[in-house]
């Protein structure tokens, strides 16, 4: 990945936590304080469940885990779309706010991140990711890359969705009488 955005923008909601053992209403746990909204209007807005500590541990109950995998998939797609990221190297991505919530001191494990991406490569995960094989690059690779699980494409728009968007944009250009160059600039700014 090229750049990683700073952790300045998390959800503006309050996280529910178990009742405290203290009866003092003036003592507020760090976890129950609202997460401040960013002053940067272009910063990524994390969903409320990003502030829930169990979100960073894959759940053992199948129904809960499936819901969690859907939530992770949506988060990864939204984050990558916002930052115009098309490929993820898991080792590097684990250090970014996508997989690490500094406020909660929680981070997704490499094993769990691989499981999420692997799920995203399936029909159930809507084929929203694809592993990039190290053998295609003919470079020395790490053990994770040798397993084919070190780097992946993230399809926040699948190829067929890009084709539809390009065709719709091309038709709009023809109706509006714009030049091809103006159309390309406007298309990529909206993507």
UniProtKB/TrEMBL annotation:
GO annotations of cellular component type: ESCRT II complex
Give this protein's Gene Ontology molecular function annotations: DNA binding; protein homodimerization activity; structural molecule activity
Q: Which InterPro entries match?
A: ESCRT-II_cplx_Vps25-sub, ESCRT-II_cplx_Vps25-sub_N, WH_DNA-bd_sf
Q: Tell me the keywords, alphabetical order.
A: Cytoplasm, DNA-binding
| Keyword check for Chaperone | no
Superkingdom of the source species: Eukaryota
| Keyword Metal-binding among UniProt keywords | no
Q: Region (Disordered): which ranges?
A: 1-40
Give the UniProt subcellular location, in the record's own words.
Cytoplasm
Question: What SUPFAM superfamilies does the annotation carry?
Answer: Winged helix' DNA-binding domain
Q: Which GO terms describe its biological process?
A: protein transport to vacuole involved in ubiquitin-dependent protein catabolic process via the multivesicular body sorting pathway
Q: What is this protein called?
A: Vacuolar protein-sorting-associated protein 25
Organism listed in the record: Lojkania enalia
